[in-house]
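Checklist before submission:
- one chain only
- standard amino acids only
- sequence pasted in full

Submission:
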Amino acid sequence: MKSKFEKKPGSIIHVEVELTPEEFKAYWQKVYDASIGKVHLKGFRPGQAPKELASQALDPEKIFEQAANDAVRFGLNELAEENKWTVIDKPSVTIKGDGTNFKYEVDLTVFPEVTLADYKKIAKKSYEEFSKEKKEITVTPEEVEKSLEFIKKSGADLKNFKSEEDLKKSLGDGLKIEKEERERDVQRLKVLTEIVDNSKMDIPQVMIEKTKAQGLNDDQAKRNVSEHLVIYKIAQLEKIEPTPEEVGEQVQLYAGHKTEVDKHKLYDYIYGVIQNQKVFEFLEKQ
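Returned file contents:
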């Protein structure tokens, strides 16, 4: 099998493949033998009819079509494995030639290559600046009172609190944690944005279109995909991954005893959430 390929924009690889007559004959023969074994002619047991008669009952075009499909499928699998391509969309294949001169061309959309910026340097500098500029987070009495008023109106059970002062302290602590988490998330997004803006990747349109299904426009979808690709690449390079125990615990927490939950999809989702969290924690330590 001879092949050549050309990289095109959008992480598309145009591949041209040519098989020798002997190579294609091997695929054709396998399909022919399997098909002729299924032919049933009156007066003969299935597979026992003379080949000359059984061959007349076969459709040559269908034999060629199946052999061509097999040749393409196995050939592309071999090329993908050899070149470490991860195909992410259904290939567009064009068959050229016949059994004596079998060729085909195909456009493969592959998982994009990501050339990361110096993410460690960017994170270290950004968090050093953040640490210098960071101000003490406080919660005002007015904020606590407003939260207390909302809690009372909601009809929440407040029996666990010994006094209103204990409740106010708990609310103040909670509000402070919320503020700290919001500030942390803003800083994380700032670091991620800088890494994305200084990295290189050729995003396939199919990834953008799938993300747009979440109600995003083109620019938002492209940014979303870029951020996920950067996080994925950092996790890959730094070998950051959640343990089965970490994911399993969260799956049980989210799913509970609900039988209608697709636990496989939930596992993948929670795996991604935990991995993202670990990547940000890694960047914070640079």
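Reviewer check: The chain has a mean pLDDT of 90.
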